[in-house]
Amino acid sequence: MNIRFRQLPLALALALALALGALALGTSAAARADITIAIAGPMTGPVTQYGDMVKEGVNTLVEQVNAAGGVDGEQLRVVTLDDGCEPKQAPVVANRVVNDKIGFVVGHVCSGATIAAADIYDDEGVVMVSPSATSPALTDGKSYHTIFRTIGRDDQQGPAAAEFIIASVKPTKVAVLHDKQSYGQGIATAVRDDLKKAGIEIALFEGINAGDSDYSAIITKLRSAGVDFVYYGGYHPEMGLLLRQANEQGLKARFMGPEGVGNNDINAIAGKAADGMLVTLPADFTQDPKNAEIVKAFKDKGRDPGGAFQMTAYTAAQVLVDAMKGAKSKDPEEVAKYLHANTFDTPIGPVSFNEQGDLEKFEFDVFEWSSDGTKKSVK
């Protein structure tokens, strides 16, 4: 259609131009209609690997949903936002999500960052599902409506570690170290308390500085105290250095850590000293026959489904999609209500949330690590 506005009265020409412009914008918006899910986590920095795991899980689910027609005909779109695993950066990311009118977030990844962002999301009605933040402080004492997680808490993971140490390792003198951060100190405290209840001597409970390159001073303390077992609460860069430097200094103690140390990049830091490290991780959901097609979808894209957070991230995205479909709404408020009220069949098993957005149950297993990149369940 070719309308020559100069032949019309000015007012009518302007009205027609505005109407046609609005129609064009509406048509363009309809053509581009989609549902945005943000992934918030460390896309840069020393624990980028955990952000990569979450991206792999979310992207695999999104690709499957979009290939099947999307959600009520709308495609899912993923944006990634970098908080560097830093509590100071997480509110910046959260405010960007709000300003961009994104209603759904998978993340944040690190507990400290997740805690720092949660108030903003809940206040602004954004649904956040973390696949990896395990600190109880995220939800304890809070009355959140839109905050969830698809991983267990440290007060579930800590007892699982302590139970294994007591029953299978049977050490005589234990040191418990942590990185002075929400996640690391929280899980270390939980392990220490359970070991003390069992009568195991805690020779040392001390924090180290994340990011340091020399832990010889603390290793000297461990040797002097005569410890035969070390539990470390924190992430793999520091654990890798502790393992390597302990080996170099002749410390004959076995090390154990939470899922934050369960990353193959630790092998590049620790080398052979990583052999025999114990780690609590989510159960290996790739071994469940019902997940065969999902595992194949990961592998078809060259992705590893067997890391700490790929399946919990896939599940986080899945429950968001299932809740949109079940609620017949993309309104975050309605999606949150549906999440609270229903049970979901997922790769990590049946998922249901309690009033504060935590899982009703979650299984942590103990694995023995190998420097060749493999691990085996020992529980």
From TrEMBL:
Question: Which superkingdom?
Answer: Bacteria
Please tell me whether the keyword Transcription is annotated for this protein.
Answer: no
Keyword field? Amino-acid transport, Signal, Transport
Q: Which residues form the signal peptide?
A: 1-33
Span of domain Leucine-binding protein: 35-357
SUPFAM superfamilies from the xrefs? Answer: Periplasmic binding protein-like I
User: Which biological process terms from the Gene Ontology are attached to this UniProt entry?
Assistant: amino acid transport
The UniProt entry, under NCBIfam families, shows: PRK15404.1
Query: Which PANTHER family does this one have?
Result: LEU/ILE/VAL-BINDING ABC TRANSPORTER SUBUNIT (PTHR47151), LEUCINE-SPECIFIC-BINDING PROTEIN (PTHR47151:SF3)
Q: Which family does it belong to?
A: Belongs to the leucine-binding protein family.
Q: What is this protein called?
A: Branched-chain amino acid ABC transporter substrate-binding protein
**Annotated source species:** Verticiella sediminum
